[in-house]
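A.,

Following up on our hallway conversation. Structure tokens first:
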């Protein structure tokens, strides 16, 4: 009886250790050099776009093209805490991605939400194009942005108002996924 009990306890401990390692691996998420988010409009809006994220030695290169916005305007541009665009107004994406507990700020501020990407400026045709490297973002490790959502807001992010920059309703949402490296 005692041998059976010791054997069962040993098996249980072994299984618990294996499960703990599996959970740790899931938490790390995918490691990739390229990710993509396809922006879809929220209810009542007509925007669309693509955001490409590329890991570089300096950080993550962010290349975005979004159309269907008002001409010559600025629109808050953020990574949000959930990769969930199911709600018709994209509120299912939650607040800004902020795993380090920093205040809201601009993309070049030392202290900011990791999801604070600033504003998308549009041209006379209502198309926003942006290309920059963000030194704080990563596609790898504990604070990887893969699996979270990109939100384009209706209004300009003032880069100072707490907690989210007063950028208004969400016009579009896209989930950041691993990109096809050959595309």
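Then the amino acids I'd put at each of the 183 positions:
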């Amino acid at each position: 009886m005692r041998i059976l009990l010791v054997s069962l306890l040993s098996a249980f401990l072994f299984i618990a250790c294996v499960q703990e390692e599996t959970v740790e691996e899931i938490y790390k998420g995918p490691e990739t050099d390229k990710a993509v988010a396809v922006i879809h409009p929220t209810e009542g809006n007509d925007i669309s776009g693509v955001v490409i994220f590329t890991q570089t030695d300096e950080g993550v290169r962010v290349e975005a093209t979004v159309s269907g916005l008002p001409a010559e305007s600025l629109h808050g541009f953020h990574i949000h805490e959930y990769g969930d665009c199911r709600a018709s107004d994209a509120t299912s994406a939650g607040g800004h991605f902020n795993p380090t507990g920093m205040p809201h700020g601009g993309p070049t501020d030392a202290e900011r939400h990791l999801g604070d990407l600033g504003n998308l400026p549009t041209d006379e045709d209502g198309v926003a194009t942006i290309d920059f490297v963000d030194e704080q973002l990563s596609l790898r490790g504990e604070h990887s942005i893969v699996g979270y959502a990109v939100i384009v807001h209706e209004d300009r992010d003032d880069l100072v108002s707490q907690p989210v920059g007063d950028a208004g309703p969400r016009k579009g949402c896209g989930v950041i996924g691993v990109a096809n490296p050959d595309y």
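Residues 2-28 form the longest helix (27 residues). Curious whether your intuition agrees with the design.

B.
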